[in-house]
Design a protein that fits this description.
single chain; 201 residues; alpha+beta; 2 domains; 4-stranded mixed beta sheet; 40% helix
C-alpha cells in the first residue's frame, strides 16, 4: 500500500503542474490579444574588431572651424590585406568624427559598410544610409568629408588613383545636396584640393 504522504505529495505536484500550464497558456493568449510586437533586432552588420599588432597611420581629419584637413597620427591594428586595411583606416577616422568634441561631427549611426579595392587603382567606399541621410548640408562640410575619406586612404595605401562613394551599395546623386557622388573622384585632383585645404598642417 502506498503511503498517504506520498499520495498527497504526488497530487500536489500534479496540481502545481496543471496550474503552471494554465497560467502559461493564459499569458500567451493575452500577449497575442494585445498585439505585442517583439523588439526589432539590430540588423546592422557588426565588423569583427581588428586584432594583431598596431601600426602608425595618418588620418586626414576635417576641421570645420578652419575649413581644413589636419594630419593626425593614430596607432591602430591594421591587417595585412589592403582591403581590410582600408576598412580599418576609415573606421578609425569615423571614430574621431563620432567621438566627443569632434572637429567634424557626423550623424549618429554613420558607418563605413565596406571598402573595395578594385584593380587598377580604384577604391569604392560604401557608407550606410545614416551616414548620408544625417550628414549636414553645405558645400564645404560635404567636401571636407569626401576629401578626408579619400585622402586618408591615399596617404596610407599606395596605388589608389580613383575613388567612388556609394550609399548602401547604391549610387546617390549627392552626399547631402552638394558633393557630387555620381562621378569617380580623381585622387590626384583630390590631393590638390586637400593641399588647398591645408592638409597636413
Amino acid at each position: 500500500m502506498i503511503p498517504r504522504h506520498l499520495l498527497i505529495g504526488t497530487g500536489f505536484l500534479l496540481l502545481l503542474t496543471v496550474g503552471i500550464g494554465f497560467f502559461a497558456w493564459r499569458t500567451r493568449g493575452r500577449v497575442r490579444q494585445e498585439g505585442a510586437v517583439p523588439l526589432a533586432a539590430d540588423e546592422r552588420p557588426v565588423a569583427p574588431p581588428a586584432s594583431g599588432p598596431t601600426e602608425q597611420a595618418t588620418l586626414l581629419v576635417a576641421d570645420d572651424t578652419s575649413g581644413a584637413l589636419r594630419a593626425q597620427s593614430a596607432r591602430i591594428p591594421l591587417p595585412s590585406g589592403r582591403q581590410q586595411r582600408a576598412q580599418e583606416l576609415l573606421r578609425a577616422l569615423l571614430d574621431v568624427y563620432l567621438g566627443p568634441n569632434s572637429p567634424h561631427p557626423l550623424g549618429v549611426g554613420s558607418e563605413i559598410r565596406d571598402v573595395y579595392l578594385v584593380d587598377p587603382g580604384l577604391v569604392v567606399i560604401d557608407v550606410n544610409a545614416a551616414f548620408a541621410d544625417s550628414h549636414r548640408s553645405g558645400i564645404q562640410v560635404e567636401e571636407l568629408t569626401v576629401v578626408s575619406l579619400i585622402q586618408t586612404l591615399s596617404a596610407n595605401i599606395p596605388g589608389i588613383l580613383r575613388a567612388k562613394i556609394l550609399v548602401d551599395g547604391k549610387e546617390r546623386e549627392t552626399l547631402a545636396g552638394h558633393a557630387d557622388l555620381t562621378n569617380f573622384y580623381d585622387v590626384a585632383s583630390v590631393n590638390q584640393l586637400a593641399s588647398q585645404m591645408g592638409a597636413g598642417q
